[in-house]
Write a structure and sequence with these properties.
The structure is a homodimer. The first copy, chain A, has about 200 residues and is mostly helical. Chain A contains eight helices and no strands. The longest helix of chain A is centred in the N-terminal third of the chain and has 23 residues, at about 50-75. The structure holds a DNA duplex (30 and 30 nucleotides). Chains A, B: InterPro entries: Homeodomain-like_sf (IPR009057), HTH-type_TetR-like_transc_reg (IPR050109), HTH_TetR (IPR001647).
DNA sequence: TGGTTTGCCGACCATTCTGGTCGGTCACCG
DNA sequence: CGGTGACCGACCAGAATGGTCGGCAAACCA
C-alpha cells in the first residue's frame, strides 16, 4: 500500500510496452521505443524496470494475469452461442482497458508464424475451440478473424478515446465475425465439406 | 522480356518484404530481415534491389498497382450490400495471392496511429465508406474490423497453404464482420441487438 | 529548517546492428 | 573458350542498442 501511484504509472507503462512488443516482437522493440511511448527518457524508464528483460517479464506476467481473469470469469460455461457471447463481451471489456496487453496475448495466435517470435503460448484459442486439431476449419478461421478484429478495434478505440462509444459496435462486429449471431441453440451442423484438404 | 523468371522471383521478394514492412514499419525492418525471409543473403538481395529505399519504393509501387486493380474491378457499383459483397470478394482474392502487399496497403488504416509510421495513404477506407467524417461510427468500426480480419486471415492462409480451402470462410467472416451478411437479396435485416447485459 | 528519499534526466560507454561495397565463385550460354 | 548474371562471404564506417553514472529538483520527514 501507500504506493498506488507508482503502481498506476507502472501499469500504464506495461500496457504501452505490451502494445509495442505485440507488433514488433521483443528484439525489434528498443527500450528507447518504450520510453518514447510512455513519455519518459530511457534512463527514466530503466529506473522503473532495471532491465529490458525485467520489463518484458513484467509485461508477460501482467498479460497472463489478465488471461487468467478472463478464463476465470468465463467459468465453465458450456460451449455454444451463449458462451461465445459472454466470452466476446468480457474479452472486449478487458481489452478496452488494456488493449496493449490483450494484443500481446493474441499476437501469437494472430500472426501465427509471420515471424516466429511468438511471445506467449497460444492458449487464447482454447477460449473458443476445445481442440484446434479437430475443430472445423471454418470455426478456426472465424475465431482468428474475430481475434484480429478485437485486437485492432480495441487498440484503435483506446487510442482515440472512443472506448465507451465503440464498445457495443466492437462486440457486435466480433460476434458477427465469430458467426454465433443467429438463434440460440442453433443446430450446429457444420455443412459437409466439399474439399477435405487436410494436413 | 525473356526475363519472366527474374520477375517472378522479384514478386516473391516484394510480397514478403511488404509483409515485414507492414508489421514493423520501414525503419524497424532491416535488409537482413527481408533477406532472411526470402532465403537470400543480404548481398544477394541487394543484387535484386540495389538499395533499401529502392526496395521499399518497389514494394509501395506494387501495392499501389494492386489497389488500383481492385478499385478498377469494382467499377462504380453503387454503395450497398451488393457492392460490399463484391468488394470483399475481390479483395480477398487479391489478398490471397499477395497477402503481404495487401497487409501493407491496409496497415495505415488498421494500426491507425499505434505508431505514426503510416506507409501509404489511407485510401483503402474509401472502398467501403464514402466519407470517414460523416459515416456512422458503427460502419467505421465494422470496416476496420473486417480489414483486420482480412489481413490476418489471408496472411495466415497463405502461410499455411490453405488459400483455396479457406477462401469461402474468409469471405464469410469478413462479410459478417462488415454486417452486410446475408445471401443475395436476403430480407434478413441485421437483427436488432437485445440489451447487452453487463458482465 | 535541513537531511533524505524519490523520480527523473543528460551524457556517456562498449557492443551490436545497420546499409552498403567489393571481390570472388559457380552455373549457364554462345 | 570468354562472357554474363545470380549469388555469396567478408568487410567497413557509422548508427543504434542496452545499460551505467552523476546530478538535480521536488516531495517527504524531522
Amino acid at each position: 500500500m501507500a504506493r498506488p501511484f507508482r503502481q498506476q504509472v507502472d501499469e500504464g507503462i506495461l500496457d504501452r510496452a505490451a502494445a509495442l512488443f505485440a507488433r514488433r516482437g521483443f528484439a525489434k522493440t528498443s527500450v528507447q521505443d518504450v520510453a518514447d511511448a510512455v513519455g519518459l527518457s530511457k534512463a527514466g524508464l530503466l529506473h522503473h524496470f532495471p532491465t529490458k528483460d525485467v520489463l518484458y517479464a513484467a509485461v508477460v506476467a501482467q498479460a497472463d494475469t489478465l488471461a487468467a481473469r478472463v478464463l476465470d470469469q468465463l467459468g465453465d460455461l458450456p460451449a455454444g452461442p451463449e458462451r461465445d457471447r459472454r466470452a466476446v463481451e468480457t474479452m472486449v471489456d478487458v481489452a478496452l482497458g488494456h488493449p496493449g496487453l490483450v494484443a500481446l496475448l493474441l499476437a501469437p495466435a494472430i500472426q501465427s508464424g509471420v515471424d516466429p517470435a511468438a511471445p506467449i503460448a497460444d492458449g487464447p484459442l482454447r477460449v473458443f475451440v476445445e481442440d484446434p486439431e479437430t475443430a472445423p476449419p471454418e470455426r478456426l478461421v472465424r475465431v482468428l478473424g474475430a481475434y484480429a478484429a478485437l485486437a485492432v478495434l480495441t487498440l484503435a478505440a483506446h487510442q482515440q478515446d472512443r472506448t465507451t462509444a465503440w464498445r457495443r459496435h466492437i462486440v457486435a462486429t466480433c460476434l458477427d465475425a465469430l458467426g454465433s449471431a443467429e438463434p440460440t441453440t442453433a443446430t450446429v451442423a457444420p455443412r459437409p465439406h466439399p474439399e477435405p484438404n487436410e494436413a
